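YM 10:42: ABC-2 type transport system ATP-binding protein sequence, as discussed on the call
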Amino acid sequence: MSDYAIETVGLNFNFGNQAIVKDLSLQVPKGSIYGFLGPNGAGKTTTIKILLNLLKSPSDQVFIFGKEINSNRIAILKRIGALVEQPAIYGHLTGKENLVNRCILLGIKKAKADEMLSLVGLAEAANKKASKYSLGMKQRLGIAQALISDPELLLLDEPTNGLDPNGIIEVRNLMIDLATKHQKTILVSSHLLAEIERIATHVGIINKGQLLFQGTINELHLLSKPMLQIEVDNIESASTFLTNSGYEIVAKTDKMITLPYASSQKSGELNTLLIQNGFMVSSLYQQRKDLENLFLDITKTN
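YM 10:58: structure's back
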């Protein structure tokens, strides 16, 4: 049995003679929150539509829970919930009526509607018309619709798009809860790198239809060479002293010296060395590149 909830093997997809997805091999481990990252127009939504069989993939290129999608379409789709582009919500119905409607369609007991409303934090707005919902509430209702059949796999396309900071935090916390407490596997696409960094366990970076990086969030951080920032009095003589002691200075401002980060032990030794030589160190910390700079690095080298 495959350990991947989603695996694509050299997936190619064209619209006419335009290649939208090129040789894409995604590997989404079961139970992960997989951040599918890339700029707008990179091929993320197309890939998600292929995973939902809304766009037909060539045979033997897309496997969900180890089964080929074209030949196991119905069985696979029963195990997936999705929110692609906008949630399909009826504005004239209440939040609860929208979900009850979905229960009837799917032949699920109607009690599930209340359960889902609580899960996504909409229990108090259950009887409010959906047209009166804020964007964040509509998005959570869309996620509740996707969850109503209790799928093992959730595909969320830019779920925080257009949300205010509060809505973003709500949807983010909901995703973490679903993965950790409810054992869902979540593929979430975004062009917001900092957003993914907060929730993802694994990351795939796509640009112009090609996968540039795939791995755990820690592997991604290892790519970004961490730096050590030292705030010290008397910057000039401190940097001369460090250079003479064999340290490499990467950058320097009037308050801060930046060196390559080696380990916490080495940082401690450096701190002691400066203090023993009469410098006053007011702060010393490790700083990683944010994903944005990292993304630029990866796209430059490809």
